[in-house]
Structure formats: structure tokens, C-alpha cells
Write a structure and sequence with these properties.
It is a single chain. This protein is α/β, with parallel strands linked by helices. The strands form two sheets. It has a five-stranded parallel β-sheet with strand order 3-2-4-1-5, with helices on both faces. The longest helix has 22 residues. The radius of gyration is 21 Å and the shape is globular. Its EC number is 2.1.1.152. Pathway: Cofactor biosynthesis; adenosylcobalamin biosynthesis.
Length: about 270
């Protein structure tokens, strides 16, 4: 934390902003953004400057005068060597909480104002699904006097809508998982449908493709949206190629896919 600066009492609003399309902002999200005194925007390096620009564009589209202050902060990079995954994530979350605190202290006019400072963070998708913003907020010192969550459209919803497919078969469950889990654990037990997020390695390539269908989407809801679908054996190589080219072009990629295997025949009794 900045030396000699104390955090004011903070009310934290975690606002789901969908997948980058201003039309994904709910009226509640727009109201919460305009009610803030301060909006924190992360910077993730030059190769991801477009992401920061997207958040700024959302602010430009919906904020009205007198607009909240906007403060940027440099997002820490999670190390990938040594210890196990959970240790790395825990260390990373602690570093992010400190960055939030520094940014808030740096944007505060006086050392310790008595009024509660309303701070907003814009969260891709929804804060409740494969996002750690709530966990990071719990690590702030001092703790926020209150935390408000504004629900957002998730990439899961955007993917199903873009392909016009239901997420589940009639009366059947589905699993939302990660690329790392798919690589390490294989096909999830007990389901025929899996939605895979946070996959930077095309983990579907580790599966036997027979009987599997994939629906894939990247930059969902944005002008550069990419979609592909088909039997995994045919669509998988196309998707891997398209994904690599898009990441090289933009410097970043956010993508998600749905996998469904053919229903298994029921054995006669």
C-alpha cells in the first residue's frame, strides 16, 4: 500500500459486464457504474492493451456527467513455475488485492476521509462463474464495509445464443469445467455435455474425437467474434488453427466451447 496513505471506508461494487459488447450491460450495471465514485480498470501489459481499451469504451458509452473517477492499475502476472497451482493462485490473489488497495489509496483526495468511497470493478462475464474477484475482495485490508454484486451475461450464455443451441439435453445435466481439468481428468463423469472455459491449450485435442461434437466461440459479442462447430474430428483442427491466428493478431483471446457426445444406448434389461 502507498506509504503514509490510509484507505477510506470502501463499498465495493463488482459489476458483471458481459463479454465486451455494450449491449450486454444491464440497466442495473449501468446504474451501478454511474453511482460509483471511483472505477478501477486493470492494465494487463501492452499485448493486452485492447482489453483495457474495451473497458474504457464501455465506460465512455454509459457514464454520464458528473462521471466517476477512473484509475488504472497494473495487473500482477501469475507465476507458473514452482509450487502447485493453488499456491500460485493464492499468491496471485494476494498481489491483486494489494494493487487494488494501492490504486484506491492513490486516487483518494485525503488520507482518511470519513465518507464511504464507492468503488466499482468491471468483471468480464459474471463475478460468480470462474472469476475470483469476490475471493480477492475478501483479502482487502481493511475489508470493504459492503460488497455488491451485479450479475452479468456469461460467455456460457453468449456461446449458446451465438450457436442457437441449448446447453443441456432434455432432463440431462451438464458440467462447466476448465481446460486444465479436461486435460488432467479427461471427460467429466456422469454427463454427456461439458462447457469448457479458461482453456489456453485446445485441451479438446487430448480427447478421442469419436462421437463428440463441438461448438466453439471467441470474442463473443464483439465485432471480431469467431464461431465454428461440427464433429470434433473435423472442426477441432480448424478451431486450433483459427485460435492461434486470432491470438497472434490481437495479442489476446477469450474463447469457450461446448462439447457434447452422442447419447449412449440404453441396455435392454
Amino acid at each position: 500500500m502507498n506509504a503514509g496513505r490510509s484507505l477510506p471506508p470502501v463499498a465495493l461494487a463488482l459489476i458483471g459486464i458481459g463479454t465486451g459488447n455494450p449491449d450486454h450491460l444491464t440497466r442495473q450495471a449501468v446504474a451501478a457504474m454511474n453511482a460509483a465514485d471511483l472505477i478501477l480498470l486493470p492494465h494487463k501489459g501492452e499485448d493486452k492493451a485492447e482489453l483495457a481499451a474495451l473497458r474504457q469504451a464501455l465506460c465512455d458509452a454509459v457514464l454520464v456527467a458528473p462521471a466517476p473517477r477512473i484509475a488504472g492499475f497494473d495487473m500482477p502476472v501469475r507465476r507458473s513455475a514452482g509450487d502447485d497451482y493453488l499456491v500460485q493462485v493464492d499468491e496471485w490473489h494476494a498481489a491483486i488485492a494489494r494493487c487494488w488497495q494501492d490504486a484506491i489509496a492513490g486516487a483518494t483526495d485525503s488520507p482518511a476521509p470519513e465518507a464511504v468511497l464507492r468503488v466499482a470493478l468491471l468483471v468480464w462475464g459474471d463475478p460468480a462463474l470462474y472469476d475470483s474477484t469476490l475471493r480477492i475482495a475478501a483479502r482487502m485490508q481493511p475489508a470493504p464495509v459492503r460488497v455488491e454484486v451485479v450479475a452479468g451475461i456469461t460467455s456460457v450464455q453468449a456461446l449458446a445464443a451465438a450457436h442457437a443451441v441449448p446447453l443441456n439435453d432434455i432432463g440431462q445435466p451438464f458440467v462447466v469445467t476448465t481446460g486444465r481439468q479436461l486435460r488432467e481428468q479427461g471427460w467429466p463423469a456422469g454427463v454427456d455435455t461439458a462447457v469448457v472455459m479458461l482453456d489456453g491449450q485446445c485441451s479438446f485435442e487430448a480427447l478421442a474425437p469419436e462421437g463428440l461434437h463441438i461448438w466453439w466461440g471467441a470474442y463473443l459479442g464483439m465485432p471480431q467474434q469467431l464461431l465454428d462447430s461440427g464433429p470434433l474430428a473435423e472442426a477441432g483442427p480448424r478451431i486450433a488453427h483459427t485460435r492461434a491466428a486470432a491470438r497472434a493478431q490481437h495479442g489476446w483471446i477469450m474463447d469457450i466451447y461446448l462439447l457434447r457426445r452422442a447419447a449412449q444406448p440404453v441396455s435392454a434389461v
